[in-house]
Amino acid sequence: MNEDIKKLKEIIENSKKIVFFGGAGVSTESNIPDFRSEEGLYNAQQQYGMSPEYMLSHSYFIDNPEGFYDYYKHNLVYEDAKPNKAHYALAKLEQDGKLIAVVTQNVDGLHQKAGSKTVYELHGSAARNYCMDCRKAFDMDYIMDPANCDGYVPKCDKCGGIVKPDVVLYEEALDESQIMGAVNAISQADTLIVGGTSLVVYPAAGLIRYFNGKNLVLINKSSTQYDSIANLVISDSIGKVLGEAVGV
């Protein structure tokens, strides 16, 4: 165990209210690509001739649900993805009474699959879907089953309406209850661990400003704008770092 991970282990042991704030880097270790990466942006432009941001916008969903779902199902839904060591480490910290919340920008539901209970999903969840007309709820299996779809577009088995994923698209507002829950947790925390995010996507990245605790820890393979004010910066794999520090 290197010195940085030893220091993180010590911080965790001396903390009572940890909050974890994570981004796409947490999920890439579960083989879910980051669509904002250079490769993701390049592939979207090459295959579709449009940016991922446009194809994941409310406007595009309404104007071209077929095109939206073609991109969405091939780039944001990974049915076989499994939690990695980072997810399990955070679930263990919650079970041990150390961690009070996970705040995530991801929509894959892997924190819950690993056993985390208090999870604020800033951008919603691909695991939840609902009919835009009658509001009937559907799981991921339903929308991925071609038998329930017209082309790529899932249709409600009750009223025939278009089923929309419960994810926050570009041009849509974040869920107020998720934001307030995240703000409340971060403002109470004595330690904030930020991992797998470059902290450039707003308004989510602005949540870090609500932290008034003792230890700010950043775990990310690239530098962030907050590195200079952090108590500990670790440039390494988040699964490896948290897995070693927590012992999973």
TrEMBL record:
Compartment(s) where it occurs, according to its Swiss-Prot or TrEMBL record: Cytoplasm
Active-site residue numbers: 123 (proton acceptor)
Binding positions (nicotinamide): 35, 107-108
Function: NAD-dependent protein deacetylase which modulates the activities of several enzymes which are inactive in their acetylated form.
Residues in Deacetylase sirtuin-type domain copies: 1-248
Name of this chain's protein: NAD-dependent protein deacetylase
Chief place of localization: cytoplasm
Reaction equations catalysed: N(6)-acetyl-L-lysyl-[protein] + NAD(+) + H2O = 2''-O-acetyl-ADP-D-ribose + nicotinamide + L-lysyl-[protein]
NCBIfam families in the cross-refs: PRK00481.1-1, PRK00481.1-3
Record's keyword terms, sorted: Cytoplasm, Metal-binding, NAD, Transferase, Zinc
One Pfam family named in its UniProt record: SIR2
Gene for this chain: cobB
Regions annotated as coiled coil: none
InterPro entries recorded: DHS-like_NAD/FAD-binding_dom, NAD-dep_sirtuin_deacylases, Sirtuin, Sirtuin_cat_small_dom_sf, Sirtuin_class_U, Ssirtuin_cat_dom
EC top class named in words: transferase
Cofactor note: Binds 1 zinc ion per subunit.
UniProt-listed Enzyme Commission number(s): 2.3.1.286
Family: Belongs to the sirtuin family. Class U subfamily.
Binding-site residues, NAD(+): 24, 28, 35-36, 105, 107-108, 123, 197-198, 220, 238
Cofactor(s) needed: Zn(2+)
Gene3D superfamilies: SIR2/SIRT2 'Small Domain (3.30.1600.10), TPP-binding domain (3.40.50.1220)
Binding residues annotated for Zn(2+), in chain numbering: 131, 134, 156, 159
